[in-house]
Amino acid sequence: MPAVHPFTALMVNSEVSVLRCLHGMLENDSVETREQFCDLMKATFEYGKLDPKELSNDLGYSLSTVYRWIEGRTAPHRCLWPKIIEWIMLAIDKRIASCNQLEEAHL
Predict the structure, then answer these.
(1) Which tens digit of pLDDT belongs to each residue from 19-49?
(2) 57 domain residue, yes or no
(3) Does 87 fall in a domain?
(4) Which of 50, 94, 100, 103 is the most buried (most CB within 10 A)?
(5) How many CB atoms lie under 10 A from the CB of residue 21?
């Protein structure tokens, strides 16, 4: 198997670091406002590289609805936020594990 190149390793390590920080923020700080929820969605799916389609499929929301949340045009009712945030935290854990496996496979 080919070794991970330094540039690729840097990007994978950076992605994992950002995802861990995001996960830590979600563990320690609650999302209180619609603005915070929309910011979380943007950070998670645009910068955190999670797949909106997975959220849509797993939680039963239409993909267009999820994209409206990411774009900040709408937000779900506040009572749904904990379920969505829990999904995000699990998805972050899976993404980190996937990145770690990729890196280990190429060492």
Answers:
(1) 999 999 999 999 999 999 999 999 999 888 8
(2) yes
(3) yes
(4) 50
(5) 10
Task: Give domain status of residue 62, yes or no.
Answer: yes
Q: What DSSP designation does 7 have? A: H
- Compute CA 2 distance to the chain's CA centroid, rounded to the nearest angstrom: 28
Closest CA to 91 of 38, 63, 62, 53: 53
Segments forming the whole domain that contains residue 73? 6-105
Residue predicted with more confidence, 12 or 61: 61
**pTM for the whole structure:** 0.87
Q: Do the Cβ atoms of 65 and 27 come closer than 8 Å?
A: no
Closest CA to 88 of 64, 72, 66: 66
Q: How far is 20 from 25, CA to CA, in rounded Å?
A: 9
Segment holding 81, helix H or strand E: helix 81-105
- Write out the two tokens for 76: 């779900």
Structural domain count of the chain: 1
Nearest to 96 by CA among 20, 28, 27, 22: 20
Contact 74, 65 (CB under 8 A): yes
